[in-house]
Amino acid sequence: MSEPGLSPYGRTFGYTEEVSVVRQTLANPNRFGCLLLGPAGIGCTTVMSMALAQVEANTPIYRLRGSEQVRDRELGVLEILLSQAGVGTEVGVGAALSMVAKVIAQDSSTSIPIVRVDNANLVDESSLSVLCHLAEARKIRLVAGAESVRAPVDIIAKLWLTGKLTRIDLSGLDEGAIAALAATSKQNTKSAAELYRDTGGNPRLLNHVLFGQEQIQAQDRILWNISEELKPIVEIFAVTGAMPYGALSALCPWEKIDAMADAGIVTMTKGRDAAVMIAEPVIAETLRSQMMPSHSLRLFNALDKVVDIGLLEGQALFGYLRWALRLGYQRPADYVYKAMVWANSRGRYEDTAMLARASQYESHEMRLEFVRAEKGLGNIESANRHFDQLLENLDIERSASRLLSRVASMDFRLTDPRTPGRLRTGWIRKQLTSPVDQGRYGSTQARFEQRGGRLIASRNLAENVYRTHACQTRHRLRACAILGFDEVCLGQVETGLHYIRQAELMFELPGATSYEIEDAAPQLFVSRYVAGDWEGARAALKVVDAGERMRDFIGALVDIRTGHPARAQVALAEVLTQSHEEDFVDIVRIGRAAKRYADALLGKNLQASDLPDQSQVESRVDRYAWWSEFESRLYDLQTLALTRPEKAAEQLFELGCAQLDREALAVAAGALMEAARLGHKRAAEELGRIAPQIQGALGHLASTMSRALLEGSAGALLDAAQESLEFGSAIVCSDLAKLAQKRAVAENDRSAVRRARILVGNSTRTIRFNAADARMDSVLSGFERRLVDGVVDGRSSQELGEAHHLSARTIEWHLGRIYQRLQVANRRELRAVASTWKARA
C-alpha cells in the first residue's frame, strides 16, 4: 500500500496508514475484517497490535496464534474456546462452529467480538474454516496476519474476493524511511539504497543490521536469564498475575524462587501469605502471548494438583479462577464470588463480567456483582435487566442485611437522580439493622441526592454517616467528600474545604475500593475548583490513581478559568480524542463545552449550530450529575457572550437563579458574576445579596464585583479588576480593567487611566505568556532581550545605541515594539515585568 504524505519516521515507527485502515475496517459494519500479508518480520503483528489497542474498551478480543505444534492438529488453535464449551477438539467442524459461536456470544452483549490470528499460515484448515464462517455470519470480526495466501490462508483470501474483507500487503520500509532509521544508528556505514537492497525494507532485518546489540530490550535480557527448568513457573505467574510463595513449593525449590527475586525477574510481597509475581508487566504479557493452548492446559493441570484454593486471596485467587474457567473447569461458587468482589473493587469490570458468564452461577450475590460490572462497563440496559430479575427473585425475609444494603445502593446508581420517584428499593432502609449497612446505604443515597442537585438533603445524609463512627471507614470517607462538596456549593467554602482535606487524609488509609474512587475522588477536584483554589484543584487527584487523561482534563479546566486558553485548547484536543467509561467526571460533555469556549477566546468563529440546544440531556442517566450539566452550560453561555452579550447575560442570570433555588450560592455566584459583567443589573444586585453568605475569597470577590458594577466608578471597577487578578481570573480582570479605563478617560482621571493600563497589561501577559514554560526568551528575540537588560541596568537610549551601533531614535523604535508586545507603557513598567520574568526563570 502506498503512504502519501507520511513522514519517514511515521513509516518507520508505526505503519500509520495501515493501522488507520485496520481501524476503519473494524468500525465498518459492512466488513468482515482484515487480512495482513507480508514475510516474517515485516510488521503484521505490530500493525494488528497498534490497531486493536485503539478499539473500544468493552469490545471482546480473542487472540489466537498459529505455530508448528498446532498446524497439523485439527481445530488445535481453537482448543481453549472449545474447552470453555465443555468439548474437545475431536468434534466435527460443524459442531465446533456452533460451540465456538456460543462461547463468543457470551462476551458480545454490546459489540461484535474481534478474533486476532497471528501466523495464520500455521493454523489448521478446519480452524480457519470455522473462523471464516463466523466472520461471514457477522458473529466476529476477523483480523489475521500471514506470510502469503497459500493454503490454508486461501480460505480467508476467498472472503477478500467477495469484497467484504480488507487485504493489506505490507511491503516494508522505503528508502526514505530507511535513511531516517539509519541516521539514528551509531554503527551503520551503508547507504539507504544498500540497506534496502540487503533487507528489502524488512523492519526486523533492518533493526538487526543497524543496531545489533543496541536493540536488545530489557524484556529480552530477562527472558534469556530464565532457565528452561524455571520457565513454566514464571509462565504460571504470567497467567495468574500472582501466586502464594507456599503454593509453589511442590513445583519449584524455594531457593530458586529467591534467586529469581534476587535477579529482578520476580518480586515478592512480605508477610505470612507472601505472593510472588513477575517484576515487569511487559514480561508477563510477552509470555502470555507466546503460550500455546496445549501448553496452557499442561501448566494449569500442574498447578491445580498442588494448589489449595482455600489459601488463595486477591490477585492469586482471581488469576487462578480466570484461568480455570477459561479452560472450562468449574470451581466452587463462593470462591468465584470472592474473586468477582475483588475484581470489581479494583474497577476490573470486564474481568468480573467474564467470571460471571463463565461460571454460570446464579446466586443473588453473584448476580449483583455482575450488575455492578455491567454498570461499570456502561451496559446500563443489561445492568437494569439483570437487576430487575434479581429483585423479582429476592426473598426479603431471608436475605441478609448486607445484601439488602448493597441491592439498594445499586438501585441508587442505576436510577436517574432527577427522578427519585423511580427508585425500586425505598422499602429496604427499614430492613437495615447494622450500622455498617446503614452507612453504605446512607452514603450512596447522599451521592444520589447530590447528583440530582438536592444539596441540603445530601448534606444531612452525608453528615449523619460521617459522624457515625460505627460505620466503616470507607463509607465515612465517601460521606466526608460528599459533605465537603455540598458545603462548598452551599457557600460554606472554608468549612467544605476542611472536609475535603480530611477526605484526602482518609484516602491514605487502607481499604478504599472503586466505589470510593467513583464517589469521593470527583469531590476533591470539583470542591476546590468551585472555591477558586486553582492549585489545589490541579493537584486534587494525586491521592488516587486518576490517570494522565483525567489530570490533563482538570489542568485544562483550571487553565481556562485562570486565563490560559491556548494551553487548555491543546490539552482538551488530546483529551477528547476518546472517552472512557471509568472517567470520574463527565469529561466529554464538560470538555467539549470548555473547548468551544477556548476556541472562541482564541478567535475561532463558531456557528450557531456549534452550540448545543439547552434541552439536550445526558444519554447515560447513571452518569448524570447536576454540577456537570451546570458547568457545561456555563461554558456554552460564556462562548455565546463573546458574540451576543445581551442574550447571554439574560440566560446567565437565569442559570444563576436556578442554582439559588438549590441554595447553591457558590455555584450561582459564578453565573451571576458573568451576567453582571455583561451589564445585567439584576444579576449584580442578586450577587450583592448573596455575597455576604459565601465564605472566603470567592465571597469577597463577588461582593467587590457587585459593588463596582452597581456603582460604575473607575476606582471601584479597578478594585474589582485587581481582586479578580489576585483570585486568578485573568480574563475577568482584563474585561473589568478595560471598562474601568473607559470610565477613567470619561472622568479625566489620569491616575485611574494609568492604573487601568497596568492591569490590562498584567492580565494580557498572564493570558498570553504565563504558560508553565513561558519565559522572556520565548517572547522576545535575542537583540530585544539585550535591550531589556540594558533598560533594567538603567542605560539610556543613547548608551544603548552606542553599544549596538545604532542611533538613539532606532533604539526608541525597538523599545516601542517591546512595550507593545509586553503590554507596558514605559521603562519603569518594563523593568517591573522583566524582574518578574527573571524571578520565574
From TrEMBL:
Species name = Brevibacterium aurantiacum
Instruction: List the Pfam families hit by this protein, alphabetically.
Output: GerE (PF00196)
Domain of life, source organism? Bacteria
Name listed for the protein in its UniProt record: Regulatory protein, luxR family
Q: Which GO terms describe its biological process?
A: regulation of DNA-templated transcription
Organism taxonomic ancestry: Bacteria, Bacillati, Actinomycetota, Actinomycetes, Micrococcales
Q: Name one GO molecular function term.
A: DNA binding
Recorded hits in InterPro entries, A to Z, give: P-loop_NTPase, Sig_transdc_resp-reg_C-effctor, Tscrpt_reg_LuxR_C, WH-like_DNA-bd_sf
| The HTH luxR-type domain, residue ranges | 777-834
